[in-house]
Write a structure and sequence with these properties.
Layout: H1 19-46, H2 48-60, H3 65-106, H4 118-144
Amino acid sequence: MSGGRLQVQRAANPADALGVVRGVIVIAIIALAIIGLANLLTATAVGLGDHLHEAEVLAAIGLTPRQVMATLVVNTTILTAFGALLGTAGGLAVAPLLVNAEGQASGLGWGIAVMPSVGVIAAMLAITLTVATAAALLLARRSARAPESLAPPRRPLATPRPTA
């Protein structure tokens, strides 16, 4: 108060200075998405031998090549959906705590974390499943045309007994 008058000034919002941090977070998310995609492709490619064996078994019981491919794609998509949902739930539970703890430690205060909208979460899950399904389809088509040399070695079901 000065001379019986109250002076009010607008305080700067400390969250406005987080523009650089937001850019870093976006870059980190993109890098993690690329790492996740590379991990998915690597895991699926490494399992190509197993897929070839599965494809042979499924073909032996009468499935068409398209049905075999669909089975392999659905297996990968279900695994991806489970991982994406579990990871999203874990991230939504932990991320606000981490962001708020960092805000408290840096002097911005607790409560700066903003949860993404349901639409953003649904879009990210849809993108994840679309990319995973496309990668699985690509590798399933590749396994359908893979040379026999990539298949695991066949073992006899039973060892022949020597005749006396």
